[in-house]
Amino acid sequence: MKNNSVAFIKAGRRQRRRRWILVTGFLTLLSIILCCAMLILGNTIYPIEVVVRTLLGEQAQGVSFAVNTIRLPRMLAGLFTGFAFGLAGNTFQTILRNPLASPDVIGITSGSSAAAVFCIIILHASGAFISIASVIAGLATVIVIYLLSRGKSFSVGRIILIGIGIQAMLNAVVSYLLLVGAQQDIPEAIRWLSGSLNGSQMHELPPLIITVLVFAPIIIVLRKHLSMLELGEQSATSLGVNTNKTRITLIVSSVCMIALATATTGPIAFVAFLSGPIAKRLVGVGFSNVIPAGLVGVNLVLLADLIGQFAFEVRYPVGIITGILGAPYLIYLLIRMNRKGDL
């Protein structure tokens, strides 16, 4: 009887592992296909072999500029921001054990956005200065939300409600800055606030790429500890997890990625909010959905950008498309949680 139970558990684990491998492989393949589509499609459609030769250094009139200067930075911006938003969003939702605890719902993205708009409109800054300001503002927003939500006991609902309030206040600050800003600065700020890959330039991407390459592996390495935190404070501690150290490391890593992604492309709506639940539904229980969540974020951003560019007569920023996809899900989730009494 004991051997049968062990064999049953092992068989279930093998099945869950196969599902994780299949889902992760499919999401990776879809990401590669979408990256290729970003390089091939445009006002002029280039064959894949021409794009490859251009990326390898071959010079061709018109093709080199279109691929290397316009399409490649746009694709890389979508790739790394999507992974950053997906990974960070899933991390916050897992730590706080609530699908509403996404950085763009509880105000963290708004903190970075307010800082970036202030730099654009008031300081007329750009590049690295905006990135640094966004990281500092994102971390400051997390600290403020934590301090205001402290009470006799830890409450995820209190954190979410205070975060939503902080988000509303920061959005009001952004609106005020747009009203008092110089006319020539408004279009850039509006374009940035909509969440867009338009105008992505290669020299702007290194801070984002380096941040993702540094902090994403930290979250991936700590994915088992992250899964234990989802069980609750006492359970995680009994399993040997240093909860405070792990939580701080994960939050700082996530905020840095979110802030740099926001500074690079603007606040692409609902990618951080949607990636975790979609990945969890695809992977199922038993295995970490950290990497799949990042890949879902990549696919959401790249697919939404392609839809915004080519599906309509007018070209829309990627943030408009992801907002259309995410808003109905947010309403559905709020209604469902209200009926269950989780709000």
Quick summary:
The protein has 343 residues and is mostly helical. The chain contains 14 helices and no strands. The longest helix has 39 residues, at 2-40.
H/E series: HHHHHHHHHHHHHH
How far is the first residue's CA from the last residue's CA? Answer: 44 Å
CATH fold node name:
ABC transporter involved in vitamin B12 uptake, BtuC
**Shape label:** globular
CATH C-level class: Mainly Alpha
The portion of residues assigned to helices is over 70%
% residues in beta strands: under 5%
Which ranges are low-confidence, i.e. pLDDT below 50, for 5 or more consecutive residues? none
E-strand count: 0
Description of the structure:
- The chain is an all-alpha fold.
- The protein contains 14 helices and no strands.
- The protein has a single domain (19-340), classed as ABC transporter involved in vitamin B12 uptake, BtuC (Orthogonal Bundle).
- It has helices at residues 2-40, 48-55, 63-95, 108-121, 128-149, 156-180, 186-193, 206-221, 223-229, 233-238, 243-265, 271-283, 290-310, 318-340.
- Helix 1 runs parallel beside helix 13 (290-310), helix 3 (63-95) packs antiparallel against helix 11 (243-265) and helix 3 packs across helix 13 (290-310).
- The longest helix has 39 residues, at 2-40.
- The chain is globular and about 70 Å long.
- The mean pLDDT is 86.
